[in-house]
Write the structure tokens for this entry.
Amino acid sequence: MSKKIQSELVAILSDLIALPSPYPPGTSVEICAYGARRLKKAGYKVEIATKTKGVDNVVARMKGKTKGPVIAFNAHVDTVGVGERANWKSDPYKALVKGGLVYGLGAGNCKGSMAVQIWLAEEIARRGGPAKGELIFTFVADEENLGPDGMAFLRKTGRVRPDALILGAQTENNLIVAERGVMWARITTKGRAAHAGNPSAGDNAILRMMRLVGALSSYYDKALARRASGAMKSTVNIGMFHGGHNTNVVPSACTVEIDRRLLPNEKVKDAFKELKSVIDGAREPKGLYTVEFLTGTNGFFAPENGAAVGAFEAAVKTRTGRKVKFLNATGVSDGRYYADDGIEIINFGPGSGAQGHAANESVSIAGMVEAVEIQMDVVKRLLG
């Protein structure tokens, strides 16, 4: 393992950890300026793309001499918050190098991958850039918020339309090529307020909601049990339940928010239609409930015989001697915005998913070096 590569990766990651970028509030100006400055100096054509003030994104491009595929790398710059400071054994905004690991907020998710991609971009430029096609590096915000100001904005505005999208993720340098879709919805029920001493004079909105949620639970318990694809399962979760404003008042309003995770062959619009059909079938009075679509994106599945997936399989075998593993994704990535584009979407990077969003998160230095070597090999196979 090259000591020089190790020290350079640790230095980059230390810089990134020292640039706070938690959501909320989601500010990404300083950390994006850092990435943009380095890649511009390396010779990339760099743009800071911003939809909402304070939420910056970096797009850096380098073209080859001949036509070829467009390969985009991505890492999100935002992190979760520090949480309970007492749970941290070191300063979350100061990298701690200990036992072959780098500790700090975002070290694993996703600044470790960002450090790897910055080093990779600079090294490719030092070697003369891609021989063919186009290489793009994107560093984006708004990922932790599942929001519209990051990768969704880059796709919508046409800034990044690749043939293959490689997203930094804590996969221990294995691959995630399939991801479930997600659909969020809100149900609101209405009632009539009254004194709790005489509840029959009112109409309890919480009880109405309980009947609706009961209908959903009864339906989904049966329907979703049959929906699976390998380790992936179609699921539903009641994430929020709010109602009433005082214990001694019959509640006149109640809301719940629902998270549906969808198999790649399920579509968001169909999932919402299904949910609304179940609610309408519960026979609560019309006008006393509403079903609202909040957001959603379809899932994706990159074929294992695709060019980019094949390049990763070969590179992992060449560089490590092992056969790459295909992992099951629990959460969702920014790749979901490209789910309907017919491209290869791959999650890959150093670190363990168990480290994400946890106090004292860390990433292995050896894992970062291995990620660099594998992805350098992948770029050579795809772009020369």
In short: The chain has a mean pLDDT of 96. The chain is about 30% helix and 25% strand. The first strand starts at residue 45 and ends at 52. The radius of gyration is 23 Å.
